[in-house]
Design goal:
Radius of gyration: 18 Å
CATH class: Alpha Beta
Number of domains: 1
Helix content: 25-40%
CATH topology: Beta-lactamase
Structural class: alpha+beta
Strand order of the largest sheet: 2-1-5-4-3
CATH superfamily: DD-peptidase/beta-lactamase superfamily
Largest sheet: 5 strands, antiparallel
Distance between the termini: 24 Å
Number of helices: 9
Shape: globular
Number of strands: 5
CATH architecture: 3-Layer(aba) Sandwich
Length: about 270
């Protein structure tokens, strides 16, 4: 039954993605034990906004600093004035597990504000994340609210894979508990394993490029899906970055995830 569900998911995902128009900018599959890229297609060196994939380092920071406790603490109720963006799932009490599951921006902001600007910057430097620029939008004093969303912080697919390899290998400069808890809340338990048995940990991300006048290009969303796949004793870091060709319904990150998961069985075990 599990394999049947996985097959149905893969078919429905591929049918859904076919209705969207997007370019795959980069596909990466890396062996974290050796650092070798087993699949590397497209432009994997150009940096773009990490968007909600940055919740992974925020989780590491939050657990390492002690603000985050486990999968369910702290549970923080929604308050009017929190970033909402019309998403009903965000208007609820959110804990670390639901933060990642529903990609709740305001919960990220609770963590970053609890850290404060100096510690937040120090963690980004220590983790060596992307271009390490968390100044936010010039003149807007919004570093703790959205430096990672269509703003100053940028990362390439190659850098995502390097960062995730260190997380998988448990070699990041944070506590072992912080890495273990971050991995735990990233597991996509709501999805069945792939049809060849690989289990997936991952995070989506979606954000708009900035225009020359400082606006937002809503027709060309970036969509990320990053994480790792495990089966028996094997682990593979996985990264997909897309850019949509027109304004689409739904999240570019979900589109990237669904298309990538449909392709992953063959990519992970090529014939």
């Amino acid at each position: 039954m599990m394999y049947l569900l996985a097959a149905v998911f893969a078919i429905s995902a591929s049918l859904f993605v076919s209705e969207t128009e997007a370019r795959t900018l980069c596909t990466l599959i890396v062996d974290p034990a050796t650092g070798k890229a087993l699949v590397r297609e497209g432009d994997c060196v150009t940096r773009v906004t990490p968007a909600s994939t940055f919740k992974i380092p925020i989780a590491l920071m939050g657990y390492d600093a002690g603000f985050l406790k486990d999968e369910h603490a702290p549970a923080i109720p929604f308050r009017e004035g929190y970033t909402y963006w019309g998403n009903p799932a965000w208007r609820d009490t959110i804990d670390p597990a639901s933060w990642i599951k529903y990609s709740v921006v305001w919960y990220s902001q609770q963590v970053t504000h609890a850290l404060g600007a100096a510690k937040f910057k120090a963690y980004v430097d220590k983790l060596g994340y992307g271009n390490r620029d968390v100044r936010g939008d010039k003149g807007k004093n919004n570093a703790l609210d959205r430096a990672w969303i269509s703003s100053s912080l940028q990362i390439s697919p190659d850098e995502q894979a390097q960062f995730l390899s260190k997380l998988v290998n448990r070699t990041l400069p944070v506590s072992a508990q912080a890495m273990e808890m971050t991995a735990r809340i990233m597991q996509l338990s709501q999805l069945p394993p792939l049809d060849n048995g690989w289990q997936i940990h991952g995070k989506t991300g979606a954000a708009m490029p900035r225009t020359a006048d400082g606006g937002y290009d809503k027709d060309h969303f970036y969509g990320w899906f990053v994480g790792w796949a495990t089966k028996d004793t094997k682990t593979r870091v996985i990264v997909r970055l897309i850019q949509e060709e027109k304004e689409e319904k739904g999240s570019a990150g979900v589109h990237a995830r669904d298309a990538f998961l449909a392709e992953l069985p063959a990519l992970l075990e090529p014939q």
